[in-house]
Design a protein that fits this description.
about 375 residues, Rossmann fold
Length: about 375
C-alpha cells in the first residue's frame, strides 16, 4: 500500500512538472512583453554593434570625389589637380579623386559628369567649360543622385535661384586680376612721357563674364591714370596661342603704334608676342601675361625686355581650396556664396627672384 502511494505521489509530481513546463512555454510565447523586452534588448544590442561598426566603416570608407577640369591642354589646370591631391594628403581622409579632362568641350564635360555619377561620386569639383551650359546637368545630378558640387575658377550665370545647386564658388577675383595687369601697364606707361598710349587687350567671348571682368579691371586702372589712352579690345574665339598670333598679326597691320598688350590668359599674350617677333616689332611692344606660364616666367626671369610681368593666378591654391570647400559642404557645413582666395600677385623682373616658380610642377618643371 505504501508502494502504491509512492507510485501515486511520483505520478502526481511528474504531471505537475509537465504542466509547469507547458505553462512556462505558453508564458514565453504569449507573454509578448517579456519576450519583446528580452528579444528587443538583444536586437538593440545587435543594432548598437551594427551602428558602431557602421560608423567605423564610414570613417574608413573611400569617398569618391570627381574633378571635372575645363581643359588639361592648358598646363595651368594641372595645378588644380596638384592642389586637390595636396588637400587629400594633408587631410588624411580616405578620398579617391577621379579627374576628367573636359577638353574645352561642353558635351564632353556633360558626359563626364554623368559618368562620375554612375561611378558613385559623392561630390564633384567642377572647373566648367563655360558660364552656363553645364548648369542643367548639375541640377539633374544633384536632384537625382544627391551629388554636391563646388564650382571653381569660372563663375556660373544661372537663369533662376533654383538652378543654384552648387555649394559655393571658389575662384580668383577676375576683375582684380585685370586691375593688377593694369597696374603693371601703368608703371611702364609712366616711363614713356605720353598721355595717349595705345594698348591691346585680347578677350575670349566664350569665357563669358570672366573675360569681361578681366578686361574691365584692366581698363579701369589704365584709364584712371591715362584717360586719353586708346584701349583696343579684340576677341579671340579659340583663345589659344595660334589663334592669338593670327589675330595680332592683323591688328599690327592696322596699328603702327602699340605700346602694351595683355589679354585673358598667357596663351593669348604669347601668341601676340610670337606675332610681334615675326614682324620684328617685339622690341617696341610690351607684353603682360595672366595666369601663370613657364615660358612667360622664363622670359621675365631672363630679362626679355618685351615682358613687363605676369599676373599670378595660382592654380594649386585654387584646387586645394575648392576641394576643402567641397569636403566642408559634404560634412554638412553651410558655405557662403563665394569661398575666399588670396588676391592675385604681380610677378615682375624686380621680384621674380622671390618666387620658387622653377619648382612649380604645374608649369611642367
Amino acid at each position: 500500500m505504501k508502494k502504491t502511494w509512492v507510485k501515486i505521489l511520483t505520478l502526481l509530481l511528474l504531471v505537475s512538472l509537465v504542466l509547469s513546463a507547458c505553462g512556462g512555454g505558453n508564458n514565453n510565447s504569449s507573454g509578448g512583453n517579456a519576450s519583446s523586452t528580452s528579444s528587443g534588448g538583444n536586437q538593440q544590442s545587435s543594432s548598437d554593434a551594427g551602428n558602431s561598426s557602421g560608423a567605423s566603416s564610414s570613417e574608413d570608407e573611400t569617398i569618391l570625389v570627381g574633378g571635372a577640369i575645363m581643359n588639361l591642354g592648358w598646363p595651368w589646370f594641372l595645378g588644380t589637380i596638384t592642389g586637390m591631391e595636396q588637400y587629400v594628403a594633408d587631410s588624411g581622409r580616405n578620398i579617391k579623386l577621379q579627374f576628367e579632362d573636359g577638353k574645352f568641350d561642353i558635351n564632353t564635360q556633360i558626359t563626364q559628369l554623368e559618368n562620375m555619377a554612375t561611378l558613385g561620386a559623392k561630390g564633384i569639383v567642377i572647373f566648367p567649360v563655360d558660364g552656363k551650359a553645364i548648369i542643367p546637368t548639375m541640377v539633374r545630378l544633384h536632384e537625382e543622385n544627391g551629388i554636391k558640387f563646388v564650382v571653381g575658377d569660372y563663375p556660373q550665370t544661372p537663369d533662376s535661384e533654383e538652378d543654384i545647386v552648387w555649394e559655393t564658388f571658389v575662384g580668383h577675383d577676375f576683375r582684380e586680376m585685370g586691375r593688377v595687369a593694369g597696374e603693371i601697364a601703368v608703371d611702364y606707361l609712366d616711363t614713356l612721357g605720353i598721355d595717349d598710349p595705345v594698348l591691346v587687350y585680347l578677350v575670349v567671348p566664350s569665357a563669358g563674364q570672366a573675360s569681361v571682368d578681366r578686361f574691365e579691371g584692366f581698363s579701369e586702372v589704365v584709364l584712371a591714370s591715362y584717360p586719353n589712352a586708346h584701349i583696343i579690345q579684340q576677341a579671340d574665339a579659340k583663345g589659344d596661342r595660334n589663334s592669338a598670333q593670327s589675330l595680332f598679326e592683323n591688328i599690327m597691320q592696322r596699328y603702327d603704334t602699340i605700346h602694351v598688350v595683355s589679354g585673358h590668359n598667357d596663351a593669348l599674350a604669347l601668341g601676340a608676342y610670337n606675332a610681334a617677333v615675326s614682324a620684328n616689332r617685339a622690341d617696341e611692344i610690351k607684353f603682360i601675361g595672366i595666369a601663370g606660364d613657364k615660358e612667360v616666367l622664363t622670359y621675365i626671369d631672363e630679362g626679355n625686355p618685351s615682358w613687363l610681368g605676369e599676373v599670378l593666378q595660382d592654380p594649386v591654391v585654387l584646387g586645394y581650396t575648392a576641394l576643402e570647400a567641397l569636403m566642408k559642404a559634404m560634412d554638412g557645413e553651410e558655405l557662403d556664396d563665394t569661398y575666399p582666395l588670396p588676391k592675385p600677385e604681380a610677378i615682375t623682373p624686380e621680384n621674380i627672384g622671390q618666387y620658387d616658380w622653377k619648382n612649380w610642377s604645374w608649369l611642367g618643371n
